[in-house]
Amino acid sequence: MQSFFKHIVDVTLKNISSSGNPSDFADLIASFFLMLAQIIKKVPNLIVATEGIDLLSLFQCGCGCIGLPESDPVRAASSFLSSYINVSRDHPPLNSIVSRYGEELFMIVIRLLGSSETPAKSTSTSLDHCVDILFAFNKKYFDCLRQWMMNFAQLENFPSPHVTKEQKQAFSQVKIFSIFVGFCPNPCFFKRLIHFRWF
Question: For residues 50 and 118, what is the distance between their CA atoms, to the nearest angstrom?
């Protein structure tokens, strides 16, 4: 089982990386990450314990795919990354990757949510799935998230030159996450709050 799974992962990653335009493999990417999302939710040890699987490459591939213009691979990759983060505290190899590269993913999500350069084909629904990544960070890496948000607030012209430093500082207040993510009975309201703060 593990050797078969490793073969699927290796072949898929090779196909995705073989093209300069990952959108050529949009259907493959969507199916691949939907499968991985289910596996890492239900049997994370299959991914963690299978010898030879490059856990970092999977994480980075997911990070790259949430910026695609097609909604299906964005939704699938976001689901995988959210699940990856949610189980990572119980698996040291995953925890190490998220701790080291999580800020990179956080910045990608913020850029997608706040930049006017977000791919035109990306719908608000697919961006909602990117917000789920922030939910996962808030739940499992709140300590890191606080620092990442402080770093983000200091960046000039990011995620867009239209976003002021004051807006970013307001968004970066940890209370927003602790109240609306931790206690809000309707998470959709928090997603709408994020979308409309910057547009």
Answer: 36
pLDDT in tens, the chain (199 residues): 889 999 999 999 999 988 788 899 999 999 999 999 999 999 999 999 999 999 999 999 999 999 999 999 999 999 999 999 999 999 999 999 999 999 999 999 988 877 645 554 445 556 678 888 988 998 899 889 888 988 888 888 787 777 777 777 776 664 455 444 444 444 454 555 454 444 4
Taking the complete model, does pTM exceed 0.70, yes or no? yes
Could you tell me which residues come within 8 angstroms of residue 56 by beta carbon, excluding any fewer than 6 positions away? Answer: 97, 101
Token digits of residue 110: 């913020």
Other C-beta atoms within 10 Å of 104: how many?
A: 12
- Closest CA relative to residue 136, chosen from 175, 98, 170, 173: 98
Rounded Cα–Cα distance for residues 59 and 61 (Å)? 5
Helix ranges (H only) for the chain are 2-17, 26-42, 44-48, 55-65, 71-88, 92-114, 124-140, 142-153, 165-171, 174-180, 187-197
| 164 residue type, one letter | T
Domains of the chain, earliest start first: 2-197 (1.25.10)
End-to-end CA gap in the chain: 48
Are 29 and 75 in contact by the 8 Å Cβ rule? The answer is no
Query: DSSP class of residue 199?
Result: -
